[in-house]
Design goal:
By secondary structure, this protein is of the alpha/beta class. 63% of the residues lie in helices and 8% in strands. The strands form two sheets. It has a five-stranded mixed β-sheet with strand order 1-8-4-6-2. A three-stranded antiparallel β-sheet has the order 5-3-7, with no helix packed on it. It starts with a helix and ends in a 6-residue tail after the last helix.
Length: 417
């Protein structure tokens, strides 16, 4: 249980660190602390260094940093906002939210703002007479370190600028996030709980778990649910999954035992927006919406849609590889419904087929992807994929405008059009 506590804490810290203002605030605090701590290190400074690294040697550098870093930070923020707005227009707002969590961009911006704060604080403390001659040596050394950090950040920022506004970078970020979500779903089937399927019988006297507010189910604090159930020798049955729309007073599950319903309901985190945490469907949706946006009349870019289909095919091929079981669940007093493989496949391709029904290359790419998924899935899932293939055939019949295209679709090749 101690390992679980550590894992949950690290996960919360990780999510918190992806918020831009949190990272900037942390760097600002460290910068101010560095400026204030120079006087405390006075006894460690050799006597000979005090005459070489004086206030006159340090202040010009600090003035350059204070003047330059504010402009650099303002310009960088403007570039980031402009690039993200462009990506939201070309892809989907869901990817925009993902790009806002890019830790590389956040670290670079935080470094620029932190350098400005450090330089400004140091100048103020020099003018206020806070620093002694020995402390000036520490400030000079710290300033050199800050300058080196800025140079490294500028090189990283140049590299980031070359890709931050590109479609390839947006798709790569979305694909990596989706892969991470699918790998986590495979590592922890049913969110680490027992699988709640038709073979599980729920007690007749089970009490309903109702939502206290409306919104998307952002995440379920499985550890807290497990601890509540274990403390009261109870069992919890959860009917909803992260990403589901929940209305206030709507039933989210049931439990047997004497758990406080309010305490159990508090473990279900609701939010106006969905999150990629615990929600593999949302990660797949972000990529799928990008393909649909590329197929819109205003953009008309079937090549991007075909590329997205290829990325979705790779993701699902790897994501469906691991055989799922609940032989040794982390949360043995909780039952959660498992997301079926065919739901992810249907979510990935059905709407792209609808929006790309007039592009034979898009329909053929989806047909090939479905055939690939059938090789990975079991017999039960393959039967459900037949409905998706029938829908694809109907879209091709309605959307393809020429006989040659319809024949090419039936052949499975566009080489002879």
């Amino acid at each position: 249980m101690r390992d679980l506590d550590l894992s949950q804490t690290l996960q919360k810290l990780r999510l918190l660190s992806r918020i831009l203002w949190v990272r900037v605030a942390l760097i600002l605090a460290l910068s101010i602390l560095a400026a204030l701590s120079a006087e405390l290190l006075d006894p460690l400074i050799p006597t000979g260094s005090k005459d070489r690294f004086t206030e006159e040697a340090t202040l010009p550098i600090l003035n350059v940093l204070a003047n330059g870093m504010l402009a650099v930070a303002t310009f960088s923020l403007g570039v980031m906002v402009s690039s993200h707005r462009t990506m939201a227009q070309q892809t989907t707002p869901r990817i925009h939210r993902l790009l806002m969590e890019d830790t590389s961009t956040q670290s670079i911006l935080a470094t620029f703002i932190g350098a400005f704060a450090y330089a400004l604080c140091s100048i103020i403390l020099f003018r206020a007479g806070y620093y002694s001659d020995s402390a000036s040596v520490i400030v000079f050394a710290t300033t050199v370190l800050v300058v080196a950090t800025i140079i490294v950040s500028l090189v990283r920022w140049i590299h980031q600028l070359s890709r931050i506004g590109s479609m390839d970078y947006a798709l790569l970020r979305a694909e990596d996030t989706a892969r991470e979500a699918l790998e986590d779903a495979n590592a922890r089937p049913a969110l680490g709980a027992r699988i709640f399927d038709d073979s599980v019988t729920m007690p007749d006297d089970a009490t309903a778990i109702t939502a206290t507010s409306s919104g998307y189910l952002r995440r379920i604090d499985m550890q807290s649910v497990q601890e509540l159930a274990k403390k009261e020798d109870a069992v919890v049955f959860i009917d909803v999954l992260p990403g589901d729309r929940i209305l206030s007073e709507q039933q989210m599950g049931n439990f047997s035992g004497k758990i406080s319903p309010d305490a159990l309901a508090a473990c279900f985190v609701l939010s106006p927006n969905r999150s990629y945490e615990q929600d593999s469907r949302y990660a797949i949706q972000a990529l799928r919406e990008t393909a649909s946006k590329a197929l819109s009349p205003g953009i008309n870019d079937p090549g991007t849609a075909v590329e997205v289909i290829a990325r979705l095919e790779r993701l699902l091929w790897d994501g469906l590889q691991t055989k799922r079981s609940d032989d040794d669940p982390l949360f043995d007093r909780v039952y959660v419904k498992q997301l079926a493989d065919n739901i992810l496949i249907d979510l990935a391709f059905r709407e792209i087929a609808r929006d790309g029904n007039s592009f034979v290359e898009v329909l053929l790419a989806i047909s090939d992807a479905i055939a690939t998924m059938e090789q990975r899935c079991d017999e039960k899932v393959r039967g459900k994929l037949d409905d998706l293939r029938r829908a694809l055939d109907q879209h091709a019949e309605v959307g393809l405008s020429t006989k040659a295209e319809r024949e090419a679709y039936r052949r499975g090749s566009v080489s002879e059009i």
